Amino acid sequence: MRAVSTVPSALEPAAPQWRRRLRAERISRIGFAAAAGLSLVVVGLVILFLTINAWPAFVHIGLDHFFGSTTWDPEGANHHTQNLQPLPFFGSLTPIAGSAVAVILALVIAIPVGLALAIMIAETSRHVGERVLRPAIELFVGVPSIVYGYVGLVLLVPQLERFAPPGQSGQGFGAAAIVLGVMVVPTIATLSADALQAVPSSLREGSIALGATPWQTLRRVLIPAARAGIISGIVLGLARAMGEALAVALVIGGVARLPDLAGGLSFLLKPGMTMTTTITDGISNLGANPKAEAARYLLALVLLVITFACVTTVRVVQRRSEVIT
Amino acid sequence: MNRRARVNNALAFGLIRAIAIVFLLLVVYVLLYTVVQGWSELTRGAFYTSPPSTDHAGSGAGPQIFNTFYLLILTVILTVPSGLAAGIYFAEYAGTGRLVNAIRRATETLATLPSIVVGLFGYALFVQATGSHPSRLAASLALTVIALPYAVRITEDALRSLPTTLRESSLALGATRWQTITRVLLPAALPQLVTGVILISGRAFGEAAAVLFTGTVGTPTAYANYSLSPFLPGDSLAVNLYVFRSQVEPGTVPDAAAYADGVAALLILLVLVFNIAARYAARHAVRRLQGAI
Predict the structure, then answer these.
(1) pLDDT of residue B24
(2) How does pLDDT run across B148-206, given as a tens digit for each residue?
(3) Contacts of A304 in chain B (CB under 8 A)
(4) Pick from B116, B121, B267: which is nearest to A245 by CB?
(5) Is B276 in CB contact (< 8 Å) with chain A?
(6) What is the CATH number of the domain that holds B261?
(7) Domain A92-281 classification at class level
(8) How many interface pairs between A and B have CB atoms less than 8 angstroms apart?
(9) Which H, E and C letters describe A199-268, residue by residue?
């Protein structure tokens, strides 16, 4: 009988029990919303704290030097003033170019492999794909990136050393690109496979019915239809490769030198640096060199901007595909 | 179909299959090789009890193993409530307003943010701005920043995948939304949420760059303690593998290479355990849902 009296009606005032529930309803809603807003607050804090700590770089180094010079020598170890004081340089073009080269090479490896895996999962061998390939790829994603870097260092680098010029250890852009490529394959493979599987089967059947081979169907119908998902996978893979730090730090050699693209493919076996490995180097002397630290925070800001760009690209690509279909 | 198209078809799919199979075999070989290399360390008792050493033989990863799980548990405790609540908001309440859109975008950004940036941010906020030193708490907070967007997405997906009838019948019976969420939806989604927590743990325990900046001061041997205080520094297995390999010259310690192999093998085996556990929980989830509905 009591249950009936808890139902509010326009005639009788709401029972206290019911009012309590309504208040709980409001409070819980606010609580859930506040938790959701936490992400926004954290992103705001990231922007704020990176900017505050990078501020000395804006003031004392200057953006024209930071983005205009290719000399990265934060301790002034190799450059001196006229009276032999160390003269530091904070040219970020070297780490930025290093990141760009390493990431592009990694994608050159990862895109064909990732697409091949996606096609096997989604099209040619669905049963094996779902039972073996997907679980295997999930396992590869879970393996800590530092393990890939370590394996690259102990297995891959000694192999590369045999081809390297005398005095080079085999560390360099080639090793970094291979390690990053292997790490990025699962991202591209899973997102592309999802996109291929989401293509309506009427498209597939229509193409086959018109006499196209499975390969023609894939190339002319399915891949264009799944374009948004495939591009998203590639962009997120790019972001992952760009942001990986320690695995790259182990295999790239950590030398402040531009990738020597003019000298043919030999740059693959020469050491270099990326934005993330440059930031990582700072761990050994935090607090000792304020200008260098500020420059590293500025590099982190650059990485944040690239992350924004990647997330926005994925959004735009997916919204466009929604409009079309 | 003409002959050329048929040949192209066979060639293309042959190539696709070859690329995929070579890649899979290569990665599986590399992972197996690493486990085999590290096996002798994994079967040595002292590996699990003694601390790492940079000047004499007999290194172990005892403190690192302890600390890895310490960070893992603290991170899960910090991540689950906020991630769950935010995921509930997105699945059950959120509209399509501008603010909601901005929050979604922020969550995506966090999920894509490089962990080294999170590490530097964590150092600036949790270590420097609070005037303290690197600690397990700071490391766990940084790991929470990394894990939070995954927790949000997993919760949202889990709730969205529930049949709408479940939600509607609960509301039709006069339950409030709060009651519907806590007594109907969350219990139904529990197995998927457990799977999600396991997968997030798998991510968090291998994350090294963020912990390097917030939990340690960059030397491989400084943290030989098993105390439970969250205010002490401590490095994880993944961080130790990096710091040890990048600081200890090969050959200076007789068993340095073997030790690092052991840590790498242990990390791979732990990933395997996490994945199998998550699969088991997921399968359990399917069975339970089919039984219940």
Answers:
(1) 92
(2) 999 999 999 999 988 889 889 999 998 888 889 988 898 888 888 888 888 888 888 88
(3) 113, 117
(4) B116
(5) no
(6) 1.10.3720.10
(7) mainly alpha
(8) 252
(9) CCHHHHHHHHHCCCCHHHHHHHHHHHHCHHHHHHHHHHHHHHHHHCCHHHHHHHECCCCCCCHHHHHHHH
